[in-house]
Model the fold of this input.
Amino acid sequence: MDERGRRRAYSTPQVAKAISGDPRCGTTVSRVYLATLRSGSNTNPTIAVVRAIARFFDEHRGFDRRPVTAAFLLGEDEDDEDRELRRRLADHQVRAIAMRAGDMSPAQRRQVLRMLDVLHETTAGDGAVVDLPQ
Done:
């Protein structure tokens, strides 16, 4: 988190340098290799690389976040809530909303959540918007 409460994004070179410079990881990775993993053009990292990535993000997670493990990254310890989250985030519009919310301050996110509550209350069961009185 940064000083404004926003989640901090780490660059690919930053992560590669941290992993390669950490003797506990037992492996090195280049920024190009990590970029291919992020883009999906490389889909078969070694377990040492998966563990190193998990270690980096676990050590840089917020105190209120679940631990990041190799099993988590591999999708092996998903519970029903994780599967539902993954299913919902598969929608491009949902991801776009979430990404934009990630750049907002906590106060702005609370305001957006209140607006979403109002929108949710005004929709019918089939998703159609109900006209609000003027």
